[in-house]
Write a structure and sequence with these properties.
Blueprint: E1 2-6, H1 10-18, E2 24-26, H2 29-35, H3 39-49, E3 54-57, H4 63-74, E4 80-85, H5 88-99, E5 104-109, H6 112-120, E6 125-128, H7 130-135, H8 140-154, E7 159-162, H9 168-177, E8 181-184, H10 186-191, H11 196-213
Parallel strand pairs: 1-2, 1-8, 2-3, 3-4, 4-5, 5-6, 6-7, 7-8
Helix pairs in contact: 1-3, 4-5, 6-8, 8-9
Bound molecules: erythose-4-phosphate.
């Protein structure tokens, strides 16, 4: 499973890149608003660090605006993937951009039929939001399993990018469900390498070594 960082913080991107396991980055309007920097400039900075797919989301909600913004984002760097909402207008823009060779990430996917349609329109990635479904009492992971099944039934090439990941248990179950990619905050990536028994084990090894050799 590929791991993307879900952040618009350059510091986070550099930290995740330094771990050597970063496959891509996703951003969204909320994440860029937190940074209070120019979106285009920040995307260029992220693309200079991470050579994998970097998702850049459009603000427009209608076809023409999505095309305008998406084409501008795509000019920033060759690894930009244009992030579009999983709406009727987003579907149209997805098809038009795919026809022009621009890769897309169809975001805010909350039902498998959205994933089926955007795959037909040539989406490079689809982003089902696990955490936000869990928040409203649904089972976000079930959506990952269903989309995986639908895509496998028809050999659809769109990658399932599990998004809205809140903790390591989400990440583990995405891998079990066969998500192609999971995008998560830096903290979740770091948490994957933490276990109290690992820390205790290191302490004991060091104490034993010190006792024997000083
Ligand atoms: C994905 O591309 C989104 O940016 C992100 O995962 C949303 O996560 P949230 O529901 O924690 O805001």
């Amino acid at each position: 499973m590929q791991i993307y960082l879900d952040s618009a913080s350059l510091e986070d991107v550099k930290a995740a890149h330094d771990l050597g396991i970063l496959d891509g980055v996703t951003t969204n309007p909320t994440l860029i608003a937190k940074e209070r920097v120019d979106y285009t400039r920040r995307l260029a900075e992220i693309c200079a660090v991470c050579k994998g797919p970097v998702s850049a989301e459009v603000i427009a909600t209608e076809f023409a605006g999505m095309m305008r913004e998406g084409e501008a984002h795509a000019k920033i760097a060759p690894n930009i993937v244009v992030k579009l909402p999983s709406t009727v207008e987003g579907l149209k823009a997805c098809k038009a951009m795919s026809d022009k060779g621009i890769r897309t990430n169809l975001t805010l996917c909350f039902q498998a039929l959205q994933a089926l349609m955007v795959a037909k329109a040539g989406a490079f990635l689809v982003s089902p939001f696990i955490g936000r479904l869990d928040d409203v009492g649904e089972d976000g992971m079930e959506l990952i399993r269903t989309i995986r099944k639908v895509y496998d039934n028809y050999g659809m090439k769109t990658k399932v990018l599990a998004a809205s990941i809140r903790h390591t248990n989400h990440l583990l179950h995405c891998a079990i469900a066969g998500a192609d990619v999971a995008t998560c905050p830096l903290k979740v990536i770091q948490e994957c390498m933490k276990h109290p028994l690992t820390d205790q084990g290191i302490e004991r090894f060091l104490a034993d070594y010190k006792k024997a050799f000083g």
